Amino acid sequence: MLRMSPVPDLEDLVRSWDEYLLAEYAQTSREAYLKGLRRYREWLTTRGPNLANARSSDVRAWREHLRANYAAQTVNLWLSAVRRFYAFLIEEHNVQILNPAAGIRGATRRGQSQTLTRDELTSKEVRSVLESCDGSPIGRRDRAIISLMAYCALRTVEVQRADLAELGTMKGRSILWVRGKGRVEADNYVVLPVAGVLALESWLSVRGREPGPLFIGFGNRNRGERLSLRQFRRLVKSRYAAIGGVNGTKTTDGLRLSAISSAIRHGAKPLQVQAMARHRSVYTTLGYFDRIERTSNPAEDLVDYSPR
Questions:
Q1: Which residues, other chains included, contact 62 with Cβ-Cβ below 8 Å and sequence gap of 6+?
Q2: Are residues 141 and 225 in the same domain?
Q3: Do 228 and 176 lie in a common domain?
Q4: What is the pLDDT of residues 18-75, one digit of tens each?
Q5: Domain coverage including residue 41
Q6: CA 48: distance to chain centroid?
Q7: C-alpha 217: how far from its chain's center?
Q8: Distance (Å, whole) CA 257 – CA 156
Q9: Overall average pLDDT of the 157-179 stretch
């Protein structure tokens, strides 16, 4: 049993964690973490323990229950929520506990590398998507959006959150400050290559320099307002459909994967790619290197039975 002394009211601790999430995380991340903790508490009631006396064996059993009913991504997200909740109690409230979720490995994402390969756009597809954007206001906007994703490896949500004020310069280079996954403030940045700068300048000549969202709508209901995530995804997918030939399984974040892969294939080093992709761990970045190396320089090509 976990050692917890003294034990504050559990409901107060949950509310305190919610307040922390509200202040430090984006709304979508907050909701996902709260849902994960709620599912964990609901499951514990079927076994007897509660948050105060759950063991590592309980968390492990919960993970197996989730694996039988949910995708690996959901399992890992909810497991992370529980792990972070207990860490919050230890770090912020000085509750004397042993984190029962610490050391519990997440669900294996079988076939992840193959999925990444399938979702990545080819160089020809990226060029065709960009060329589908004409000189109209909407075309200029879409080209700027796609350029940020295809050249700077921005996630869809990062482009959607961007504000005009987050454009800037650093040591003579144009940059865009980025609010990454789960972040409330823009605390990282990407360097804009020439193609990205030109696309943004073309868009801003239409949009103007008024403060506010970097990318806005032109419809009757959202004219001048920030595009929603759904509208962003629909926008990119419509560009895929317009050129034809882009596999229907490829997502909007396929452009991000294309940027990472292209940088690696053209000689970027792991730390350079990690900075661009804003991976927390370099091991995540190295996974992309391994995937590309697997097909560009496979061991199978070195098998040789010819006489010497």
A1: 40, 43, 44, 82
A2: yes
A3: yes
A4: 988 887 777 878 888 999 999 999 999 988 888 888 999 999 999 999 998 888 888 8
A5: 10-93
A6: 36
A7: 23
A8: 12
A9: 94
